[in-house]
Amino acid sequence: MSTAQKGQSAERLSVVYAVHVIEGGEQGFRDVYERIRKSVAQVPGHLIDRLGEPLDDSRQWVITSEWETPEHFFAWQQGEDHQALVAPLREWVDQTQSLRFRVIQETVGGKA
């Protein structure tokens, strides 16, 4: 297993945002996510964003993102533009859960 190198990913933050999309709201949700994704990509400290679509009919989607440091994420989250940017998601989702955690180890495929 490859351990995160100090200074590179030891301070990196991963955010998992699980959302339950309302019935019939998939396209609206994807449209809003596309606008958010493009904006977040310009935020200092943002590394990557991923959208996961459910394989079953659960309507449970997952947005994951990685940030250089927790401070980068919280600065964006607490900024004035954040609430206005994510507010349109509320029209398409009826449940949310957010998990945040530091990356302390990672394994890259083929490099065990």
Poorly predicted ranges: 1-9
**Tally of individual domains:** 1
- Major β-sheet profile: 4 strands, antiparallel
Radius of gyration: 15 Å
Secondary structure: number of strands: 4
Protein name: Antibiotic biosynthesis monooxygenase family protein
Pfam families: ABM (PF03992)
Domain ABM: 13-101
GO molecular function, one term: monooxygenase activity
Task: Describe this entry's structure for a reader.
- There is one protein chain.
- With 112 residues, this protein is α+β, with helices and mostly antiparallel strands.
- It has a single domain, classed as 2-Layer Sandwich (Alpha-Beta Plaits).
- The protein has a four-stranded antiparallel beta sheet.
- The N terminus is likely disordered.
- Keywords: Monooxygenase, Oxidoreductase.
- One of its GO terms (molecular function) is monooxygenase activity.
- Its EC number is 1.14.-.-.
- InterPro entries: ABM_dom, Dimeric_a/b-barrel.
- This is Antibiotic biosynthesis monooxygenase family protein.
What would a concise description of this structure say?
This protein is of the alpha+beta class. Helices cover 27% and strands 30% of the residues.
Keywords:
3 helices, disordered N terminus, oxidoreductase, Alpha-Beta Plaits, monooxygenase activity, 4-stranded antiparallel sheet, 112 residues, monooxygenase, alpha+beta, Antibiotic biosynthesis monooxygenase family protein, single chain
Topology:
Layout: E1 13-21, H1 26-40, E2 46-52, E3 60-67, H2 70-77, H3 80-86, E4 93-102
Antiparallel strand pairs: 1-3, 1-4, 2-3
